[in-house]
Amino acid sequence: MTPPPKAGSKADRDALRHQMSAAGCTTAEIATEMRVRLRVRPREAWRHALGWTLQSTADRISTRPGPAVSADASLIGKWEKWPGPGGRRPTLQVLVALAAIYGCDVEDILDIEDRGALPESDLRILRHSAPEQAVPAAAMPAMPAVPAVTEPEPERDPVLAAATESASWAQWAEATNVGEIALEQLLADVRTLAYDYLTGDALPLFNRTRALRDRTFALLEGHQPPRQSADLYVVAGHLCGLLAWMTSDLGNLRAADTHGRTAWLCAENADHNGLRAWVCSTRSKIALWDGRLRDAVTHARRGALVNVSGTVGVLLACQEADAWSVLGAAEEAEGALTRATRARDNINGEDEIGGLFSCPQARQENYSAAVHLRIGRPQEALRETSAALDLLATQPVRAYGTEAQIHIARAAALLDSGEPDGIMPALTPVLAMPAERRMGPVTQRMRELAASMAHGPAATAATTTGAKRSIIDWCSDSASRHLALSSGEGAG
Fold this sequence. Notes:
It is a single chain. The protein folds into three domains: about 10-130, 434 Repressor (Amino-terminal Domain) (Orthogonal Bundle); about 180-360, CATH 1.25.40.10; about 360-365 and about 375-485. α4 (about 55-65) crosses α5 (about 75-80), α10 (about 180-200) packs parallel to α12 and α20 runs antiparallel to α21. It is mainly alpha-helical. It starts with 9 loop residues before the first helix and ends in a 6-residue tail after the last helix. The protein has helices spanning about 10-20, 25-40, 40-50, 55-65, 75-80, 90-100, 110-115, 120-130, 160-175, 180-200, 200-220, 225-250, 255-270, 275-290, 295-305, 310-325, 330-345, 360-375, 380-395, 400-415, 425-430, 440-450, 460-475, 480-485. The longest helix is centred in the middle third of the chain and has 24 residues, at about 225-250. The chain is built from 24 helices and no strands.
């Protein structure tokens, strides 16, 4: 005797569907029964009521007339699971397309849990739509109800069957969930974020960058031709690079390195040398502030091996010099600064992104000043900070983080040159910075300056001790502290 099919199996679902169809039940009634018996979401219940597989559903929604909706089996499954774990929220256009191929209204494939998770804007559209039209303008007329069927029998002729399979695959391969205009917009949004970070507050920009990264990741989980996938990886890599830089500025270096590793994976998947170089620059910066100085040198040198246009070569050489100077290797640091000057002279082409991912002359002078301070050449540092401030005065966009570091370097150079009276005037613009702009590198350099004031001939001067107290008070409030308070870590 043949055992009954396992509850919830395909055989069990097929038996239930055939039994209810023979009894004259509608597809909607079968879907309701499937949902109750199998305890599945309404969209999955409708698919089982029609006897369709995930892939056949993806094929139908991708080839239906009307606004393009591209999907594969995995994406259909995620739309069905939402809003549960592992699900992805379907857009209104997707819901309309699903309802059309299932032969039902949009409301039929939504339950109270779905409605609770949908944005209010989507719910307003659903409430005010005509019964026969789920979404104004975007929706196509609903297709007639599809009778309960199983998958069609394959072609009897294997040669014709193979041709049909190739044609079906070509249809799938040609479909995409992202167009050229959308890709251009994503890259434009990345450029905007990279520029805005130079002048804007870190926390809101971090959230904007994170949201755009999530959108890009979601697109990559869908289906697109390999060339468009590579473009999306480039966008995702730059966004992870931005998050890495921002996260390190906000004081969490280990989390920043995680973003950096993901950015490198994106660069490798895209096979994009420009992104590789900028990721190396970002990871070198993180390693320096994390005290991993040899790693900082390694990342900078690795990036310098990539032949790309723009100013990344200048920044990589500056970062290598920075790390060598912390290690106390004056000769190596000077050699790296010389390579930075040579890279500036041989710049070929523009930076692809710009903003944070660029190294204008003032940024280079800031690195040089910091290096010369560490290796005991304060007069050179003074000249470089003067040149940097003159350059910033002519620029339409002034990066407040770089500008603050230049003022700090100038104060340190004055201290080392035995001119303590100039410290407070040099630091005045920094001390006036609002707390939400006091990023990790800036506060760290202020602490280093305060520590150095305890030594040297001017250590006991009234101007020196007064400046030290002002710096300590200033460092007690910072962007990283505000982040901790906003997330509840500093409460209590």
